[in-house]
Design goal:
This protein has helices at about 10-20, 30-40, 45-55, 60-80, 95-105, 125-135, 140-155, 170-185; strands spanning about 1-5, 25-30, 85-95, 115-120, 165. It is α/β, with parallel strands linked by helices and about 190 residues long. A five-stranded parallel beta sheet has the order 2-3-1-4-5, with helices on both faces.
Length: about 190
């Protein structure tokens, strides 16, 4: 599996789309997957409260267990439909412990090594991209609260374990070039 991770607005979806366009893998977006599970299991609770209650009732891996089961389910569906694909692209991991949990619960595909790709971007650029994507106008202080939540969850625990760190502070063309270079050199 390829784990694409980084803060909100770093370019994870863009990188996933580049990899897919090069026939590299099949993306599974963790945030959307978890939100679907939340609506199915406990729509009466806010997403945050659902996560919090689940961790108190079950354990700290409450959401990781849901994600691992869903990844395995989607993997089996993909394998049944496609005769061959290179890898799963897991988009949006927020903690290294979550990545480890998924790695331990989801068997590898095609004897490929699991790779963590961390996408790094300066905070002012992240805020601009987030505001554009979400059609908001968050101040630096308001956006810092979002980043602080990611830090609380564990986003910063991933970077030291990343196999690849991509700086995405330039143009989309530069990012595409970097990803295509990774495909031909490291990811093969």
């Amino acid at each position: 599996m390829l784990f694409l991770t980084g803060p909100h607005g770093s370019g994870k979806t863009t990188v996933a789309n580049i990899l897919v366009s090069c026939n590299f893998g099949y993306p599974i977006e963790l945030g959307g997957t978890l939100r679907k599970a939340h609506i199915k299991i406990a729509p009466e609770l806010s997403f945050g409260l659902w996560c919090e209650k689940g961790e108190k009732i079950y354990d700290k891996n409450f959401t990781d267990e849901i994600l691992a089961k869903e990844i395995n389910k989607q993997k089996e569906e993909i394998l049944a439909q496609k005769s061959f694909f290179k890898d799963l692209i897991i988009v949006g991991s927020r903690s290294y412990s979550g990545i480890e949990y998924i790695i331990n619960k989801v068997p590898i595909i095609n004897n490929r090594k699991n790779i963590i790709i961390y996408i790094d971007v300066a905070n002012d650029i992240l805020r601009q991209r987030y505001n554009l994507r979400e059609k908001k106008n968050l101040s630096p202080q308001e956006f810092e609260l979002i980043l602080e939540n990611d830090r609380r969850i564990g986003i910063e625990s991933i970077k030291p374990h990343a196999d690849i760190i991509i700086s995405n502070s330039e143009s989309e063309e530069k990012l595409k070039s970097e990803v295509k270079k990774l495909i031909t050199t490291i990811l093969k």
